TrEMBL record:
Residues 55-402 form the Amidohydrolase-related domain. Gene3D superfamilies: Amidohydrolase, Urease, subunit C, domain 1. It comes from Catenibacterium faecis. This is Amidohydrolase family protein. Pfam families: Amidohydro_1 (PF01979).
Length: 427
């Protein structure tokens, strides 16, 4: 496996990224051996891949994924706990569910996402699919797997992609179980969400006691795990950071105390605009959302934007995730999150790409392995015709995906036309 990518326009994923031309990327055994001027490159023994002026950049890193969801719009709220119980009820349905999760992982890869971080899934499916991909049995991205999250009775996603811990001992038992499953991180559901709330203004209502948050974080850190937390209110952000959480997923308006905690804890923010946007901005005749859900969706959407802007102003690192699996959010549309980050938070295209490549890799602790086109790193790259530094819509049309050196030309996914039509109105 020796490939030389020539005649491409390189965007390397570093913070100061600019287009570099007349360089060759030499790949051996799945890793980048060199990035060298083409006229000086010795291509003897290499399979030469002529990019013909196309752009090549690091594969995207989606830091907030639920592999159990397809993002299909719903006419009414689904009982996710009941559905998961059915899927786990017999060997046949379990096999179907496992194949579904595997297929969704492959969708991520075919859309240009070469690394995902799962933050709530069905039982141990995420780690199983991760291991199947790593040993070559399945095709998919690099997976940092969280398996089931930890919630509380009647808490966010309890009974579906998170267990409902009634006591601190229950929560700690789940941490131990996660370790046995060889997870890569622990996920907490600290507040409610848009679809949990029954009244206006309470989508981020605190559900998990601070004492439970602290006990889980202490145990997880002792075992070497980082802790990610679903948080959709300022109160939730404060409780999470005061008790040791390493990443805030979603976010809400910050005060000086929270900003100080972010920095003291070396915590980061995972911005997720995609799932709140339909509830906040679509007409309710399209989303089938109630007036309360639309109101709360707008509260969360505005809170995430405000949190991201404050993080930028205070040098708090940001990564991106699209909370795939929520209604209207598919396994192949992560590029939209970069576009929304640019449009609503006001960052440059380059900075959006940086947050979804090298910065994400750094926050995930894998920047020595992936996240940029640099010597020694895994050859995780994507190729497109247009320049995403000029227009992030270029990421919608991927010509090739290279994962650990293996190239997939002209990757395709089946597109939900309703989702595409409605979401495209906000581009």
């Amino acid at each position: 496996m020796k490939d030389a990518y020539i005649n491409g326009k390189i965007i390397d994923g570093t913070k100061e990224m600019q287009v570099k031309e007349e360089y060759a990327i030499l790949v051996e055994q799945g890793k980048i051996k060199d990035v060298v001027l083409q006229e000086e490159a010795d291509l003897t023994g290499y399979n030469v891949v002529n990019l013909k002026g196309n752009y090549i950049m690091p594969g995207l890193i989606n830091m907030h994924v639920h592999l159990a969801g397809n993002g299909k719009p719903q006419k009414k709220q689904r009982d996710n706990a009941k559905l998961v119980n059915f899927l786990m009820s017999n060997p046949l349905t379990r096999a179907i569910a496992h194949n579904m999760v595997s297929g969704f992982a492959e969708m991520e890869l075919l859309s240009g996402v070469t690394t995902i971080r799962t933050v709530g899934g069905i039982r141990d499916f995420d780690t199983r699919v991760r291991d199947e991909i790593n040993c070559g049995k399945k095709r998919g991205p690099r997976i940092l797997a969280g398996n089931e999250g930890i919630s509380v009775p009647h808490g966010h996603m309890a009974g579906s992609v998170a267990i409902a811990a009634e006591t601190i001992d229950d929560a700690l038992l789940q941490v131990s179980k996660a370790k046995e499953q060889n997870v890569d991180l622990i996920k907490l559901m600290i507040t409610g969400g848009v679809l949990d709330a029954k009244e206006r203004g309470v989508p981020g209502e605190l559900k998990m006691a601070p004492e439970m948050v602290k006990a889980v974080c202490d145990k997880a850190h002792e075992l070497g795990f980082k802790v990610a937390a679903h948080v959709e209110s300022s109160d939730g952000v404060r409780v999470a950071l005061e008790n040791g959480v390493d990443s805030i997923e979603h976010g809400a308006k910050l005060d000086d105390h929270m900003i100080k905690l972010f920095k003291e804890n070396h915590a980061f923010l995972c911005t997720t605009l995609s799932p709140a946007l339909p509830y906040a901005l679509f007409d309710r005749s399209i989303t089938n959302a109630s007036e309360v859900e639309q109101f709360n969706g707008k509260v969360v959407f505005d809170g995430i934007i405000e949190c991201a802007k404050q993080a930028l102003e205070n040098d708090i690192p940001i990564v991106l995730g699209n909370d795939v699996g929520c209604p209207w959010i598919t396994q192949y549309d992560f590029w939209r999150e970069l576009y929304y980050f640019h449009k609503y938070v006001g960052v440059s295209n380059a900075y959006a790409i940086y947050c979804a490549t090298l910065q994400a890799a750094r926050m995930a602790g894998i920047d020595d392995e992936t996240g940029s086109i640099e010597v020694g790193k895994s050859a995780d790259m994507i190729v497109m015709e247009e320049n995403p530094l000029d227009d992030l819509l270029a990421l919608r049309h991927i010509e090739s995906v290279i994962m650990r050196g293996h190239r997939i030309d002209h990757p395709t996914n089946k597109i939900n036309e309703q989702v595409k039509t409605e979401l495209d109105k906000f581009l």
